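[Q] Does anyone have a clean structure-token version of this?
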Amino acid sequence: MKQSRIPHLTTIVVLLFFYLPIAVLVVNSFNVSRFGTGWQGFTLKWYERLADREDLWLALGNSLKVACGASAVAMLLGTCAAFALQRYRSGVQTMHGMLVTVPLVLPEILMGMSLLLLFVALGMQLTLVTVGLAHVTFCISYVALVVQARLQDFDFTLVDAARDLGATRSQAFRKIVLPLLAPGILAGGLLAFTLSIDDFVVTFFVKGPGADTLPVVIYSMIKKSREFPVINALSTLLLLITFVAVWTSQKLTAK
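[A] Here you go.
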């Protein structure tokens, strides 16, 4: 009996280790106390102050622009990469698969530095465009893996049957392949959106003046103004957006 309880206790300890700090952050976003040293009452004034911070709204707009753009491009390129990896087998595709998976294990600081050197070597000005291009580089890998997992259970005889009945390649793709893969593609896109909107390290290297995203602004607030209650409220909203995106992605993947 005692041995059977050990895995449950281990799971509880691990969950508390990961999620208890997040729970404290969320609770302090409703705390009257400015420094969160103790609970002094419930308030929404920290959320009300967010409405008066134009810099935060501008940063949020930048984050949404980059995340939506990077997700859209990653869905297109990642789906093409997944099709190529699933349908063809060769030495080139083996190398292709390695290149797709490398961004998953590459340290973010190394990726940020290398992309910065690339943009400087090309003479590109650091703007939201460079931030979006940088986010596409690591978002493609996640979309490709999600779609490739979907393709492993895909019945391609449906495409062959449609071709035998007179459908063209484009018709078979639009009416059979795309609708069946749409949940997987959208799930990969939402995962890419979540990773992009939360990214700090890569963005910090490749951003320019006026191209600050929300995580960068939050870091600046912690270092300079130390407005911890407002940061807690902002982080709670960002956490809610991330949770909704991940939950939707899991639902689409399950389908």
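[Q] Thanks! Anything notable?
[A] The two ends are 37 Å apart (CA to CA).
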